[in-house]
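note to self: dont lose this again. the chain is below, predicted strucutre after it. 234 aa total, dont forget to put it in the shared folder this time
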Amino acid sequence: MNRPDDPRAWHRPQTLRAVLFDLDGTLLDTAADIASALNHSLAAYGSFTTEQVREMIGRGVPTLIERALQRLKVEPAVAERAAIQRRFWEHYQQLHEGDQFLTRPYPGAADALGTLFARGLKIAVVTNKQRAAAVAVLERLGLKQWIHVVVGGDSCAERKPHPQPLLLALTMLGVPVTQALMVGDSQVDVQTARGAGVPVICVPYGYNEGADPRQLPCDAFVETLDALPGLLAS
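---
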């Protein structure tokens, strides 16, 4: 659906060859596992509920940890900050390899990926999560089969909202910016897409750093991802 307050009609690229998805908050609800890893890494200082963590997610784990430390009003030394990140990723990996794994695809995510893949579109995931962690969770949930390229926060020099990760994904796919679009859930995704010069569609759920996702200045919204193939065919 289009923005209700935007008179512009939705126009997809004349020739669409690639769709690039954000991961956390768009394809996957990862908040519970992220909250568990964050609380484990910050056990000496305090803890947060999953809902509090939802409001802090965005721009990658280093930013998440800094936001958490600010809320806790503690300022660890540089070495301790590095140790916090290490504890976060160690626990996060353990969760993804064990029975306490709580991450789930959002409704319609698998259907959307499968339909777009069947149409012959190139599909990429562009995330600020470490690439290995992103690939591992996509494989565990059975979604990786439809995804050609995964670009993580450690795949290039810059992270979203810088356009470099999105442009790297398009280079790897062999698709120009004029034949691509992005799907996300946050201001970070909108800024990334605008910087790269591609249209952006948003979902009205996810992790928009505590702000209302429905206020995002995107080109269109879909309530759930299974509505995306129909929008792209219009």
